[in-house]
Amino acid sequence: VSDRPESRRGQPHTRQLHGLLAQGFCLIKNLFPNLEQDLALGGAIIADMGEAIRWYHFDGYKKQFTSDLNAVSVSRIFLEWNIRQHVVALPNVTILSSCTVRELVPNDDRTHILGVRVVKGSDVSNGMVLEADLVVDTSGRGSSAGKWLEHLGFGRPQEDEIKVGVGYACRLYRRQPDDLVGAKIVMISPTPPSQKRMTFLFPIEGDRWIVGAGGWCGDHPPADESGYLEFIRHLPVSDVYDVVSKAEPLSDIYTYKFPSSLRRRYEKLTRFPQGYLVLGDAIASFNPIYGQGMTSAIMQVQVLDDLLRQQPSPTGLCRPFFQRIAKVIDIPWQIAGCEDFRYPETVGKKPVLTDFTNAYLAKVHRATQHDTVVYSQFLKVMNLMAPPKSLLHPKIVWRVLRG
Tell me: the pLDDT tens digits for 310-333? Predict the structure, then answer.
């Protein structure tokens, strides 16, 4: 495997724009204390979210201010490569490359997972068993966990799905110092349900812009250059178009379609084998427009870390783990679901009180255009640093309704 930051087989949509929320950035720095320094030295942009982002949403610009919430703007490829460097430097870590996990290896009565059977390359006869005290499945949305559990005599988890029909296309451009004045990042979001299109402009390492243009409910950008630029040009404001229409393209246009958010309810299973856990996109994958995926996964890792410190043995770990991460997942699932159900075309089970919540949040969004107290609290909720109910604090409600 090449030891350079590059897109590798098995990494989903690595050429697309990714966001690491402030909560995720804080937690990952706790795990890797030198990561922020390494990212900055490599050209990543680290800046205050309130100051750095020029965000047009609900027919107006949110008011820029000092929020004390740091954002990192970096390509997923470079972020993951830096994390990998820190992980492989650990003395007790060995990485097996070009391997496929074929199945779980249980004990005789199938109550405990003893390891996994892996195959090197495409030769299915060249398999070996890796024994482990604890197997953690982070194989993404396409995880085989449900199939494996069913084969071992356990049930598949219930699945919740919200069909959103999101699609987007990303492209890299050369970044010049005078491309954008008064901000480092531009986000143009729609006013549902009449508008469905969005475009984000993020600076990344290598003096480049990454542009992500997309939309809900099948309103997706084309992959040809003229169509892509026209899609961006027809947004309500021209901030992104003004940059990319003059900038030098550095890549092809890479498209990605996301049909639905998917959540697997492992916490509701009555039987589950010991020594095996499921984490990250393998348990919940959210509409990527909201940038919650990486941060949710990091928060789940934090739960696992806390549990292992309290209880080093993997026996009896699965039930408290799945119960705790269900609470972690509840909040981003609720936030994304409520926003997606602003569109009548969205299909799935609506979170409770969605219509009421959205009516109030529309007022919150408009209040963020002039009230930094409201905007500050909204950013904490958006970054998974405060619960959504904090936006119902009397002080916030008064400011929202006054506006």
Answer: 988 888 999 999 999 999 999 999
Task: Give the DSSP H/E element, type plus range, for residue 211.
Answer: strand 208-215
Query: With contact defined as beta carbons under 8 Å apart, do 317 and 307 qualify?
Result: yes
pLDDT tens-place string over residues 334-393? 999 999 999 999 999 998 899 999 999 999 999 999 999 999 999 999 999 999 999 999
Q: Are 18 and 69 spatial neighbours (Cβ–Cβ below 8 Å)?
A: no
Closest by CA to 382, choosing from 26, 49, 44, 46, is 49
The CA distance from 183 to 343, in Å, is 30
257: tokens are: 């379609």
Quick one: which of 74, 86, 77, 83 has its CA closest to 44? 74
The answer to whether the beta carbons of residues 116 and 135 sit under 8 Å apart is yes
Bin 76: left if φ > 0, else alpha if -120 < ψ < 50, else beta: alpha
SS3 readout for 244-308: HCCCCECCCCEEEEEEEEEEEEHHHCCCCCECEEECHHHCEECCHHHCCHHHHHHHHHHHHHHHH
Q: How far apart are CA 364 and CA 373, in angstroms?
A: 11
> Could you tell me which of 107, 123, 223, 106 has the C-alpha nearest to residue 171?
223
Q: What is the DSSP letter of 19?
A: -
Torsion (CA) 66, 68, 73, 79 in degrees, nearest 10 = 170
* DSSP class per residue in 128-189: EEEE-S-EEE---TT--HHHHHHHTTPPPPEEEEEEEEEEEEEEEEE--TTS-SS-SEEEE-
What gap in Å lies between CA 186 and CA 54, rounded to an integer?
Answer: 5
Count the helices and strands in the chain (H runs, E runs): 12, 15
The β-bridge relationship of strands 135-137 and 276-278 is parallel
